[in-house]
Write a structure and sequence with these properties.
This protein is 26% helix and 18% strand. By secondary structure, the chain is an alpha/beta fold. The termini are far apart. The model has no long low-confidence stretch (mean pLDDT 97). The protein binds ligand MGD (2 copies), iron/sulfur cluster (SF4) and molybdenum atom. It holds the Pfam family Molybdop_Fe4S4.
Length: 695
């Protein structure tokens, strides 16, 4: 018998809506949800390879407790009751010694369904919730909050109606989200301009109408020069700026020295190119999208860079504008009621997260700073973190071994909740196997946007092994710990009914398409109605939030240091490829077959000087780590940088297809986790030089 289930893809964090076909209890087909605009049946390679995750036996099949030294791979099988009791007892002992706040939870992200795992740490009375954002998009989030009072997830992009899209190393064609890339392609088909700025010609560069090869680390300098020209030549949207932007005189004063000629020296992009680019933007405004970045933990100036991108959007009047940036509407703004919160039923802890104890000079928001967490674990300051839960995240896959050791020395309990054997779980004291997204239902999620909707991830088939859904794992942990009152539900339907209570929406309303929109038409504000969520209601260049935390409004562009390429020194940059997700898909049978290992992009002129030919093995080293990888010699990368795709060289021997294949960029990031970006204290993962020589 064939059935069809609407659900949500779990192969990356884009969480595309899908339709899953089940034939006689087996998943036989997955496609994009045909009812969702921008999806219309399409799916990426990873989404299709969800089948190979589901039917993979090289994933955890039952709970496990460590029996040998950390990292030796010695575990015993345990029952769920046994692991829940073990965790509860260990946490209680550590809390009685170090206080409730000694428990931390490191999460991939809040996202659509993330509220569930937050219950663990709050239910245990600790404030220490962290997600991966510091190493991903946090700069953009904080920059939006500082300027508009809206967070990053509350700003959407009307790609398909844009006249000009500007992407800074936002490699949308490879580091993809299906709906986004489909809509960008629609814009191109409609004749839009696409300016792509990157140190290398990625696949997105090949779709661009203008590609600017920029010197690594100098995007901020480019933006200051663009602002300079736009202000000087009166190319901005005067109506928008007069009504909504505060702090323009101070900005004008700040950008005076940053002429296109100055920027040419910093960026390597000719001044005339910068001027003609600015003029084209002036002509295309207000249907312009400057995208402030997704993976934005790149350079020390990343927070101020993100602010400069948002300021450019404001100057060109592209905010809450067709073909521009669209602000998300709350359920209340569209006349509906939102989902009931599971988290708010638990009293918020009075104690502060580790970074909140560290004084002022940087911004933070709802989730903690990872770099402060790592520091607290390593040093015990401002207070010790001894129990660490890691959920849907593999931090140990992307950091140097020395950092792993220091963290392991600091924590006395490490628990992972994962669908795969992650590098982190290989060191864990307890491995809790979650059912894959095709085998479980999650809590309902709220899809934000101009037309908010409730969305459902619904189980397609029963779990193949002794794994559990996330809500069941959270319930088991909290009940054993003695906080079961926060998870009184017996089934996912109980949870859904609680979430939906008072909204007028019923579970069966999701049957038809998997989603329930909260209004009929997308809602947009006219300029007469528009008000931002900052204290002044305006776009605050002189941000109240920054003033409160004593963070400077402006930041002089730093001098970007130059690697000694003559002697084989380069800046290491890295990124995503279309057929893999970060560190989690390399052992996937289908995807591994397509791309089993990575290679190192190196500029052809420099390679010739170093005697490196295409396909040669080279040794890349940083600090005490060095590894081998094949060279891809190409003119399409800046001389100062070498590039590799992320997430290879898996270190878990249980994963036979990916074990040891390729080179792991994370091991080469010596010192990266001690560096904090200005104003945001997020990661700056490209502030890193490596040595390359022929192997
Ligand atoms: N297939 C696939 N898609 C994904 C993901 C995935 O794992 N796989 N992950 C998702 C996630 S979590 C994220 S955060 C996004 C990331 O989305 P992106 O940020 O678009 O992706 P990256 O591949 O990290 O892009 C890094 C790019 O920055 C360039 N770069 C390096 N230095 C500079 C510089 O100084 N200036 C400029 N302008 N460019 C520079 C690099 O050459 C590289 O092309 O992708 C998402 N989509
Ligand atoms: N060295 C280095 N570090 C980086 C980056 C980099 O490029 N290089 N990129 C940064 C960025 S932008 C990001 S987004 C992060 C991403 O880094 P991670 O979040 O660590 O990478 P992922 O591969 O997305 O997945 C993490 C884990 O989630 C598990 N998982 C997948 N699905 C599920 C599920 O349904 N349930 C559970 N419980 N687990 C699941 C996977 O098996 C995997 O072990 O890394 C950041 N850090
Ligand atoms: S972009 Fe691909 S892997 Fe990510 S959620 Fe969408 S279909 Fe799944
Ligand atoms: Mo990310």
């Amino acid at each position: 018998m064939k059935t069809s289930v609407f659900s949500i893809c779990g192969m990356c964090s884009a969480r595309c809506p899908i339709r899953v076909e089940v034939t006689d209890g087996r998943v036989t087909w997955i496609e994009g949800n045909p009812y969702v605009p921008g999806m219309e049946g399409s799916l990426c390679a990873r989404g299709s390879a969800g089948l190979a995750l589901l039917y993979d036996f090289e994933r955890p099949q039952y709970p496990m407790i460590r029996t040998g030294p950390r990292g030796a791979g010695q575990y015993k099988r345990a029952s769920w009751d046994e692991v829940f009791a073990y965790i509860a007892e260990r946490v209680q002992t550590l809390q009685s010694q170090y206080g409730k706040r000694t428990v931390a939870l490191l999460d991939r992200g809040a996202g659509l369904f993330g509220q569930m795992q937050r219950l663990i740490v709050r239910g245990m009375g600790s404030p220490n919730y962290f997600n991966h954002d510091d190493l991903c998009r946090k700069n953009v989030d904080l920059a939006y909050q500082s300027l508009l009072g809206y967070g990053r997830p509350e700003v959407g992009y009307d790609w398909s109606n844009a006249k000009h899209i500007v992407l800074y190393g936002r490699n949308a064609v490879e580091a993809l989200a299906v709906r986004e890339v489909n809509n960008i392609v629609k814009a191109l088909e409609n004749g839009a301009n696409l300016t792509y700025i990157d140190v290398r010609a990625s696949k997105t560069a090949t779709k661009a109408t203008r590609y600017l090869q920029i010197r690594p680390g100098t995007d901020y300098a480019l933006n200051l020069a663009l602002i300079h020209v736009i202000v000087k030549e009166n190319l901005f949207d005067r109506d928008f700026v007069d009504r909504f932007v505060t702090g323009l005189p101070e900005l004008e004063n700040f950008i005076k020295p940053y002429t296109p000629q100055w920027a040419e020296k910093e960026t390597g992009i000719p001044a005339y190119e910068i001027i003609s680019f600015a003029r084209q933007l002036g002509a295309d405004k207000p249907r312009v999208i400057f995208y402030p970045g997704w993976f934005a933990a790149r350079y020390m100036d990343a927070f101020y860079f993100a602010r400069s991108v948002i300021i450019l959007n404001a100057l060109l009047g592209s905010i809450e504008q067709k073909g521009g940036l669209i602000l998300a509407k709350t359920p209340k703004e569209v006349g509906a009621k939102g989902l009931n919160s599971l988290l708010e039923r638990i009293p918020a802890p009075e104690e502060k997260r580790v970074e909140a104890e560290e004084g002022k000079g940087f911004l933070y928001d709802g989730a903690g700073h990872i770099l402060h967490l790592y520091r607290a674990i390593k040093t015990g300051q401002p207070y010790p973190i001894k129990a660490l839960f890691v959920v849907r995240y593999d931090p140990f896959a992307g950091i140097p071994h020395k950092d792993i050791e220091e963290i392991l020395n600091g924590v006395e309990l490490l628990v992972t909740i994962d669908v795969n054997y992650s590098n982190t779980s290989y060191y864990a004291d307890v491995i809790l196997p979650e059912s894959t997204y095709l085998e479980r239902s999650d809590i309902l999620g709220m899809q934000r946007g101009a037309k908010p909707a409730f969305v459902m991830r619904r189980q397609a088939v029963k779990p193949l092994y002794d794994t559990k859904a996330r809500w069941e794992i959270v319930k088991g942990i909290l009940t054993a710990y003695g906080a079961g009152e926060y998870m009184p539900y017996e089934s996912i339907e109980d949870i859904w009914n609680y979430q939906l209570d008072g909204t007028g929406v019923k579970i069966e309303d999701f049957d038809k398409t998997g989603q329930v929109a909260l209004c009929k038409d997308a809602k947009m504000y006219s300029r007469d109605e528009l008000k931002f969520k900052t204290p002044s209601g305006k776009v605050e260049i002189l941000s109240s939030k920054m003033a409160e935390r004593e963070v400077p409004f402006f930041y002089e562009p730093p001098k970007i240091s130059k690697p000694d390429t003559e002697n084989g020194e380069f800046r290491l940059v890295f990124g995503r490829m279309a057929v893999h997700t970060h560190v989690q898909t390399h052992n996937n049978k289908y995807l591994n077959e397509i791309v089993p290992e990575n290679e190192l992009w190196i500029n052809d002129k420099v390679a010739a000087r170093l005697g490196i030919k295409n396909g040669d093995w080279v040794e890349v080293s940083s600090g005490d780590f060095s590894g081998k990888i094949r060279a891809k010699v190409t003119p399409f990368i800046h001389e100062e940088a070498v590039f590799m795709y992320r997430g290879f060289e898996n270190e878990v021997p249980w994963k036979s297809r990916s074990y040891g294949k390729g080179l792991n960029e994370g091991r080469l990031l010596k010192g990266a986790f001690d560096r904090m970006a200005h104003g945001s204290h997020t990661g700056a993962l490209f502030e890193n030089f490596v040595k390359v020589k022929k192997a």
